[in-house]
Amino acid sequence: HAPGNGNHGNSCLFTSFHISCFVSYINNIGSYTGKSLFGKDKVFARLFRQRGLSPADVVYIGDETRDVEACKKTGIPMIAVTWGMNNKTILASMKPEGIADSPDDLPGLISRIVSV
After folding, report:
1. What are the strands, taking DSSP E only, across 2-114?
2. Rounded to whole angstroms, how far apart are CA atoms 54 and 36?
3. Residue 1 burial class via C-beta count within 10 angstroms: exposed 0-12, middle 13-18, buried 19 and up
4. Residue 45: which residues within 8 A CB-CB, separation 6 or more?
5. CA 31 to chain centre
6. I need a surface site. Which of 56, 81, 106, 109 has the fewest CB within 10 A?
């Protein structure tokens, strides 16, 4: 999930971490599933089956409490970003694996999660 403003359907490659990731309409889950915005955990499970992934292969970056909830349900490590939908206090209360106050925080947080 790449929070914010129209990043639907993009792909990215974190070459310094040898992590490939893709954005697949997760932040517009209705477009991806044809269902409501709730149930991201089910979308993740289906995506894992389709791509042959496990939660250990993924670091999710999101800006909503629903993101944290879905990641906790599926065991995906999650970094909450504070420049999106929900504020830092609310996101921190849900105990994601990391909290980023700026995009510059992401590489260090991803590195810490991936190296665990």
Report:
1. 11-14, 19-22, 60-62, 78-81, 98-100
2. 24
3. buried
4. 74
5. 17
6. 56
